[in-house]
Amino acid sequence: VDKDVIEMLKIAKEMNHLSNGEFDVTYGSVLKVWHNYRDAAEPPKKGPIPNDLELQEASKHVGWDHVLINEDDSTVYIDEASISLDVGGIAKGFTTEKLADYLSARGITTAIINFGGNNRVMGTKPDGTAWGLGIEQPGTQSAMVAVSLNAPISAVTSGDYHRYYVSEDGNTYHHIIDPSTLYPSDHFHSVTIYTKNSGYADALSTSLFTMSVEDGIELIKTFNQTYPDTPASAVWIMDTEKAFDTPHSFKTNGYFVTYTEDLEGKIKH
After folding, report:
1. Is residue 269 within 8 Å of residue 257, measured between CB atoms?
2. What is the pLDDT of residues 130-186, one digit of tens each?
3. What Rg do the C-alpha atoms of the chain give, in angstroms?
4. Residues 6 or more apart in contact with residue 63 via CB below 8 angstroms
5. Other CB atoms within 10 A of residue 127 CB
6. Which residue, among 23, 122, 2, has the nearest Cα to 71 in the 3D structure?
7. Which residues pair with 174 in a beta bridge?
8. Is the pTM above the cut of 0.85?
9. Crossing angle between the packed helical segments 198-209 and 91-105, to the nearest 10 degrees
10. From CA 253, how far away is CA 106, in angstroms rounded?
11. What angle do CA 58, 60, 62 make, to 5 degrees?
12. CA 229 → CA 153, 183, 224, 265, distances in Å?
């Protein structure tokens, strides 16, 4: 494989370790089950959901211990045919960061990169003010929250409102699967990560989406201790009935928004 693929998988493995298995690209067999059901239920059709036995069987075929990375030969070997890698939670962010490196190497000092919703800013705005990085209201294309930060910075959002389908039971099932339940996580509508490296931002937003806010804050702290030169911040958007008592929060447009302490004074609605 290409050297960049090796680098991306090494980051994915690091994030698997930091998140205690919450972020796991080896869950391709489970994600493929949901992907197939979602594709079969293209709107306006409705479709069934996978049964527990199907998901449990797929979950037997996961694990980094089956993935052998050889940097010297640039190879990736998977020792079990039923295991597959799904890098949807990191590939776009990783590629966004590579594009920023590409532009920088060619003398581009100021840029805004929007790679399918993964945003990366370089340099300073002409007027010298901080960049305003917005978060859309779930299910719309309108910004509901804006965060002012200085470049270089990435903003990556994981949400439940772009890739989903409506099942025969009338419920919606999105694409971000909780490895502990094998079903779509239902904690939040979106989680947005702000950090310099877009690859790490992508992996973190996916990880935090399937965790509680408390566990997500602990992961952010662990990440910041591990990578002090690339500190991360987070914003969670959820239904108001899931609101809890915290000074770093507000309600807007019918949603409850909470964020990491370091964003105090930098977030507007």
Report:
1. yes
2. 899 999 999 888 899 999 999 999 999 999 998 899 999 899 999 999 999 999 999
3. 19
4. 26, 83
5. 5
6. 2
7. 164
8. yes
9. 160
10. 42
11. 90
12. 12, 35, 8, 22
- Structure token pair of residue 60: 């037997």
DSSP 255: E
Q: What is the rounded distance in angstroms from the CA atom of residue 12 to the CA atom of residue 203? A: 7
Sign, CA dihedral 114-235-139-46, equals positive
239 φ, ψ to 5°?
Answer: -65, 150
- pLDDT digits over 50-85, tens only? 999 999 999 999 999 999 999 999 999 999 999 999
Please, which residues have CB within 8 angstroms of residue 244's CB and are 6 or more apart in sequence? Answer: 213, 258
- 96-102, long-range: CB within 8 Å, 24+ apart, which pairs? 96/120, 96/154, 96/198, 96/199, 96/202, 97/154, 97/197, 97/198, 97/199, 98/4, 100/152, 100/198
Within 8 A by CB and 6+ apart from 180, the residues are 210
